[in-house]
Amino acid sequence: MTITSSEYGFPIFISSTDYNLIDLRAELAKYLSDLGYRPILSSSDGFHDNSPDLEPWESCLQVLQSAYVMVLVIDGKYGDTFEWKNFSSIIGERKVSPTHAEYLLAHKTKMRMLVFVRKELLTYYLTYRTAIKNSKGDKEKAKESLAISLPKHIAFETLEFIEEVKTTRPIPWIKPFENVTEIKQEIQKKMLNELAELFLFKNKHLEAVVRAFSTVLDDLPEDKRKETLEKIGATKELIIEIETQTKVIHDLKKEKEKLQSELKGKAEELEKAQKDKKKETSSLQKKVEKLTEELDSINTRIISHELNNANYLISGSTIPYVTFGSQGNSASLLGGTTSGLYSTGILGTANASPFSTVLGTSFLYSVPQICDKCHTNMLSTASVAFGSLKTCPSCNRKLCSSCFNGIGTTGLVFSNVCADCRNDSAKAVLKTK
């Protein structure tokens, strides 16, 4: 099996309640290392004391703070308990095991946690809760009542720990496990999702900034616009493409103003005709509807061209930028494989993104797909979720998901024709009745 690796070693802290799990932790650490992460083990050997102010067992918390995520494995044993004087603001006066302290710090600092609990423990955890209920919350009595039935390899304190993890809000992601293979599979899946969400979040902000910059460019005089683009290192080819797009935007905006004026006039005529109850009301209504549709179409086209300019600024390419693809190996968030279109400058820097390899997907550059109805550029960064175009066999138009299924309708519509063709067929049927 080919393992996809990360170019950047995200630190992942592995914490365990049972030091007999040394083999499991070692195998898990190797697996994460093979994936490209940087595993940090909470082991029986402890950590080197990096500060003379810390107790030897407290150094694990110092190391934990540098991690991106904590993997907590809860098994039968609880471990020795200690006081945590240097972390009293988080742990208080409690005497807890190192693993428990690691959980408390991670929870307090809102670190992302993936918690795995041995399946066998969950059965005894239910028994523990019953014992607590029967003893009316008296933990010492509950411990005595469980002394006979609880196996020696399961500590009462471990069940208390599970109770705290499962009930203290915000409750972390928790998964039962039987073996290390299950843990490895779940971690890989969860980390891919985590990194995907992180990338999309950052990419969304990047797109918003670049699109705002693109809008500002559109409003600048031609000489100032070229001067600005040259300052950020754009090449002559890119400047020409952005100028072309900007001219189209300006022409569309002029057409938009003309349509708005015409629509306003027709709307006033319609309002007057309705008051006077004139016969031309119906024809005026149709004209107003047609002008409104044309205006909506122009607005969509303006947005599409503005996004194209943003695409060019993000990718440094005259080929629109796509967030995700199924194959290929372009590993740059800003410059991609086409970053040579920028001679120098911030946007032209080929900043390798770890997400391109971690996610097992890549950033591809493809030929733009424009919806025949709304004219949306399906390969713009803002339109990733829409997917590819679908051809209607009835009208032969290539439509986006919204136009094909109908606005407000999910993609689970069981029809091989578009919404417009379905509506036309329904109207034809009604006319024959």
Keywords:
Rossmann fold; single chain; 3 domains; 7 strands; alpha/beta; 14 helices; disordered N terminus; 433 residues; two-stranded antiparallel sheet
N-to-C CA distance: 62 Å
Number of β-strand runs:
7
How many distinct domains?
Answer: 3
What structural class should be given to the helix and strand makeup? alpha/beta
Q: Could you give a short account of the major beta sheet?
A: 5 strands, parallel
SSE succession: EHEHEHHEHHHEHHHHHEEHH
What coarse outline follows from CA principal-axis ratios?
A: elongated
Strand content: 5-15%
Query: Could you list the spans in which at least 5 consecutive residues all have pLDDT below 50?
Result: 1-7, 318-368, 379-387, 408-414
Instruction: Report the C-alpha radius of gyration, rounded.
Output: 31 Å
Question: So how many helices?
Answer: 14
Largest sheet strand order: 2-1-3-4-5
Polypeptide structure, described:
The protein is an alpha/beta fold and 433 residues long. The chain folds into 3 domains: 11-178, Rossmann fold, CATH 3.40.50; 196-388, no CATH class; 389-433, no CATH class. It is 51% helix and 7% strand. The protein has helices at 22-35, 59-64, 88-91, 98-108, 119-134, 139-146, 156-167, 180-219, 222-231, 236-276, 281-315, 355-358, 401-405, 419-432; strands spanning 11-16, 38-41, 69-74, 112-118, 173-177, 390-391, 398-399. The strands form 2 sheets. Strands 2-1-3-4-5 form a 5-stranded parallel β-sheet, sandwiched between helices. α1 (22-35) runs parallel beside α8 (180-219), α8 crosses α11 (281-315) and α10 (236-276) packs antiparallel against α11. The protein is elongated, with a radius of gyration of 31 Å. Mean pLDDT is 74; it is low at 1-7, 318-368, 379-387 and 408-414.
